[in-house]
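TICKET: design request
STATUS: open
ATTACHED STRUCTURE:
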């Protein structure tokens, strides 16, 4: 099925917007130039209200339709990742140490395309709130926007968001009712021993061996402490200790991530980490401190809104999956779905490098597809007459 014809007419403009954003990435809450670009476009489109400076650099823009009705929220994230780009493209990042490696430049462009169309046509009864959010990649910008009251302030009844998906054909969609993205927690373990000469380990309390023992024991949480049919990931991702071959150090550090969907499983993991760290430390004669940081909650789609969003996606695409398996990545749109019904969907980005890869690039041919989806969500949720 085709994209909306009028939005297809914007394709070259959208490509230009997206590539400008790609070349000028900003991190976390510091999306001021991006927000200024977005606000300029929105005003040129003739939206009714542009509210800036939310969650430092976020924007909420309002478009009024024909007559009264609910307010539909559409969200796009704007921030980039702290990494260097290796694509060599003529619109590659001009900012050292920052890159749009997750396609937020594309998400922002899709919502801008929908904004232009909706401001022109206004073929809906009610309002649309266009939410341009900073700090999805750490910082929890969605949570801050919720805490600053945007959903109440603008009377948002339901919310929708898209994320591009490398490895899925351009224009294809997938989603699922219920959990679609995992909760993400982080653990830090600080091990304190007693260092000494590498030739005299009997005179030390070796934190290196303790770190290895703790990391190995952590693997039993998944294999022996939880029901195998419940999704759970516990990964040790860093171990740092020592500086040379003949010195046993005083300290060690272990870091990792926990991904869950069920709060009971999340609580079990935290408890077992506390027990393992204490027990292993005692067995090796060292001390160890666990810091457990609870991060983004699970992203949980409302069943009815997920079905509605999938039906709308079928107006734009012949390739829509509405019962996809949940993914173990995390997404701070969860904070909006915690307080309003709505749905989160993936839209194909084609055969590109994966997300968070230095060679990633958003496929510009997908932008009109996402913009058409956003526009149709509003028109179908808020029909005139």
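STATUS: resolved
RESOLUTION: sequence designed for all positions
ATTACHED SEQUENCE:
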């Amino acid at each position: 099925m085709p994209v909306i014809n009028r939005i297809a007419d914007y394709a070259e403009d959208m490509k230009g917007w997206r590539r400008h954003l790609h070349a000028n990435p900003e991190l976390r809450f510091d999306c001021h130039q991006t927000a200024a670009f977005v606000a300029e476009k929105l005003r040129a489109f003739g939206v009714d209200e542009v509210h800036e400076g939310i969650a430092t650099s976020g924007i909420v823009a309002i478009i009024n339709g024909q007559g009264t009705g609910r307010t539909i929220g559409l969200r796009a994230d704007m921030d980039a990742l702290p990494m260097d780009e290796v694509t060599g493209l003529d619109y590659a990042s001009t900012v050292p140490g920052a890159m749009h490696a997750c396609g937020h430049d594309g998400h922002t462009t899709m919502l801008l395309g929908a904004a232009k169309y909706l401001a022109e046509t206004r073929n809906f009864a009610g309002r649309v709130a266009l939410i341009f959010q900073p700090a999805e990649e750490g910082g929890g910008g969605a949570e801050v926007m919720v805490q600053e009251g945007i959903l109440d302030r603008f009377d948002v009844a339901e919310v929708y968001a898209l994320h591009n998906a490398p490895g899925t054909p351009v224009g294809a969609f997938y989603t699922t009712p219920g959990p679609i993205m995992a909760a993400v927690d982080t653990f830090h373990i600080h091990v304190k021993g007693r260092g000494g000469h590498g030739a005299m380990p009997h005179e030390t309390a070796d934190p290196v061996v303790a770190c290895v023992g703790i990391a190995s024991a952590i693997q039993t949480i998944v294999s022996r402490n939880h029901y195998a049919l419940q999704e759970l990931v516990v990964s040790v991702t860093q171990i740092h200790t020592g500086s040379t071959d003949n010195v046993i150090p005083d300290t060690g550090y272990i870091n990792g991530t926990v991904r869950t969907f069920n709060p009971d499983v999340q609580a079990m993991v935290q408890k077992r980490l506390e027990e393992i760290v204490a027990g292993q430390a005692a067995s090796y004669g060292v001390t160890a401190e666990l810091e457990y940081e609870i991060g983004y909650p699970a992203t949980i789609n409302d069943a009815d809104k997920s079905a509605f969003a999938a039906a709308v996606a079928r107006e734009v695409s012949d390739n829509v999956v509405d019962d996809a398996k949940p993914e173990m990545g995390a997404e701070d749109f969860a904070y909006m779905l915690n307080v309003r019904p709505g749905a989160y969907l993936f839209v194909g980005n084609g055969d590109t490098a994966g997300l968070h890869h230095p060679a990633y690039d958003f496929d510009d041919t997908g932008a009109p597809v996402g913009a058409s989806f956003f526009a149709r969500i509003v028109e179908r949720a808020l029909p005139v007459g």
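CLOSING REMARK: The mean pLDDT is 96. The first helix runs from residue 5 to 8.
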